[in-house]
């Protein structure tokens, strides 16, 4: 008897802007796999029931996006190390009937830099702007790569302190006012705030204090070239854009359900860029 197709999903609320079906659909076709990946709008009040009935619905697993990543963290029975550290789940699967959860955002962040700027992790000191969920994933990635100092800078300093308490040792918390002084001895600057995203205020900070060897990276990818990255290039600094983090976080999830580690190709990147430009 032929094996049944493997079914996966992304669920969120709203979900219609998710690019994940396009990414996973591209790989399913490229690797000629018998599977599907669909977007499902699940309201917060229905989320627990949705997860508890995955097996009955025929799903092998799926992605979880806003606003469900923290609820998924509480509901799943088994968490991997990254999800545990980050406190949020973006990838789930069933193992002998048990709900398991991971967070592939930290992997995605690091793999994107690996692909775009090999050797980036020889940097020792990072400044991270923001203290939300994305910041937690980036901090975990930087700790995994052995950064000596991760300085968390946030408008609301108390949130930066909460993250410092969570991640300990190599992290420190700072107010926005401290930025100039911190940048002078920073190898890697990462924006994890929503500033600079189309429709949000721009991120306007002076990059003058950064040393010439510094790398500037943004996790915002709409627009692809954020004002921060444009400023950094103007100053002659090396930059890494954020779309790759979205593409690479999907790699680890796809492999989990479909058993093939897919490649982030130029063709895939272009498809997503075209789709983003179409403004849907
Ligand atoms: P996510 O989980 O996607 O990272 P979030 O939890 O809403 O999102 O966090 C958004 C981040 O952007 C926060 O660090 C936020 O700063 P506050 O903690 O002070 O709210 C930051 N942010 C959003 N708008 C900002 C603004 N206008 N100026 C400075 N920081 C801003």
Euclidean distance between termini CA atoms? 41 Å
Total beta strand runs: 12
| CATH architecture classification name of the largest domain | 3-Layer(aba) Sandwich
Shape descriptor reads globular
What report would you give on this structure?
The protein is α/β, with parallel strands linked by helices. The protein has 2 domains: 6-103 and 249-278, Leucine Dehydrogenase, chain A, domain 1 (Rossmann fold, 3-Layer(aba) Sandwich); 107-241, Rossmann fold. Helix content is 39%, strand content 21%. It has helices at residues 20-30, 47-52, 54-57, 69-75, 81-86, 105-116, 133-144, 157-167, 179-183, 227-234, 243-258, 266-277; strands at residues 6-12, 35-41, 59-64, 78-79, 91-95, 98-102, 125-129, 149-154, 171-175, 188-191, 215-218, 238-240. The strands form 2 sheets. Strands 2-1-3-5-6-4 form a 6-stranded mixed sheet, sandwiched between helices. Strand 11, helix 10 and strand 12 (238-240) form a beta-alpha-beta unit. Helix 6 crosses helix 7 (133-144) and helix 6 (105-116) packs across helix 11. The protein is globular and about 60 Å long. The termini are far apart. The model has no long low-confidence stretch (mean pLDDT 96). The site of 2'-monophosphoadenosine-5'-diphosphate has 15 residues, from helix 7.
Report a brief summary of the structure.
It contains 12 helices and 12 strands. By secondary structure, the chain is of the alpha/beta class.
Q: Helix and strand layout, with pairings?
A:
Elements: E1 6-12, H1 20-30, E2 35-41, H2 47-52, H3 54-57, E3 59-64, H4 69-75, E4 78-79, H5 81-86, E5 91-95, E6 98-102, H6 105-116, E7 125-129, H7 133-144, E8 149-154, H8 157-167, E9 171-175, H9 179-183, E10 188-191, E11 215-218, H10 227-234, E12 238-240, H11 243-258, H12 266-277
Parallel strand pairs: 1-2, 1-3, 4-6, 7-8, 7-10, 8-9, 10-11, 11-12
Antiparallel strand pairs: 3-5, 5-6
The structure holds 2'-monophosphoadenosine-5'-diphosphate.
